[in-house]
Amino acid sequence: MGNCVNFHFDIDGDNFTSAGEASVRIKKSLREMGFTPDVIRRVSVAMYEGEINMVIHANGGTADVNVYVDKIEIILADNGPGISNIELAMQEGYSTAPDNIRSLGFGAGMGLPNMKNYTDDMKIESEVGKGTTVFMTVNV
Amino acid sequence: MVIRQIAELLSAKVLCGEDKLDGVVNSACGCDMMSDVLAFVKDQAVLITGLCNPQVVRTAIMMDMRCIVFVRGKMPPADVLDLAEESGIVVLATNERMYVACGKLYQSGLHGGEVV
Predict the structure, then answer these.
(1) Assigned CATH topology for domain B3-107
(2) A5-139 domain in CATH 3.30.565.10?
(3) A62 near A68, Cβ under 8 Å?
(4) Fewer CB under 10 Å: which end of chain B, C or N?
(5) Cβ-based contacts of A110 with chain B (< 8 Å)
(6) What does the DSSP assignment read for B2-70?
């Protein structure tokens, strides 16, 4: 597997204003590490959507980014309410976000589909009442 | 189009990034849903929006955009401007409504570009 650089973030679930800070930091770090703009955008957008989801739905969680030479893994884990129907949640336009979140510019039901579109592989493990973990990989 | 020209066409105030007004941009998008910006923007360098919170700037950062135009007289709070300044993004504010702002820029040659 080779060398791996890990970045770990705790995502504050109480503060929509700060949501996305970790993704901005990852974007800067990947730029400093010399990845291409396309890879950087795919990783940072997928992670940003995930961060926003964790703040809206799950009272925060953790984000881990594992950077390898040939791929970047993003693992987002929360102890939120879980997703009861993952297939439905993956449909474009389906959202359970409250109205106040729409007034902030999110909750259009594009988050999970967008995360899938921007990554090469995405897997969701979720248990109702326990939480959700999203595993994403972007190949370099 | 040069960013300075956007400010002139919309009679916009420059709230930050004065030193980057000579930057050239080739396409724009007008949107209040940041989810849609993240889903549909490809290489648009200008974001025209009436939404006024830090997520607008973070979305622009994610999409490598260079200029944000706040319409309808919206004035972003200091934390929003600080974030834009740190990220090298020009912020303009105009009293024009979204439809008119987009129309004026489109008519002057700033088109929509490709979408994802």
Answers:
(1) 3.40.1390
(2) yes
(3) no
(4) C
(5) 35-36, 38-39
(6) BHHHHHHHTT-EEEE-GGGTT-B--BEEE-S-HHHHHHHBSS--EEEES--SHHHHHHHHHTT--EEEE
Q: Which sequence spans correspond to the domains of chain A? A: 5-139
Each residue's pLDDT tens digit, A41-61:
999 999 999 999 999 999 999
Between CA A46 and CA A41 the distance in angstroms is: 8
Q: Are B76 and B100 a contacting pair, CB within 8 Å?
A: no
- Could you tell me if B18 lies within 8 Å of chain A, comparing CB atoms? no
Distance from CA of A79 to the nearest CA of B (A): 23
Name chain B contacts of A94, Cβ cutoff 8 Å.
none
Confidence (pLDDT) at B114: 78
User: Would you say the ipTM is above 0.95?
Assistant: no
Which residue ranges make up each domain of chain B? 3-107
pLDDT at site A1: 53
Give pLDDT tens digits for B28-64: 999 999 999 999 988 889 999 999 999 999 999 999 9
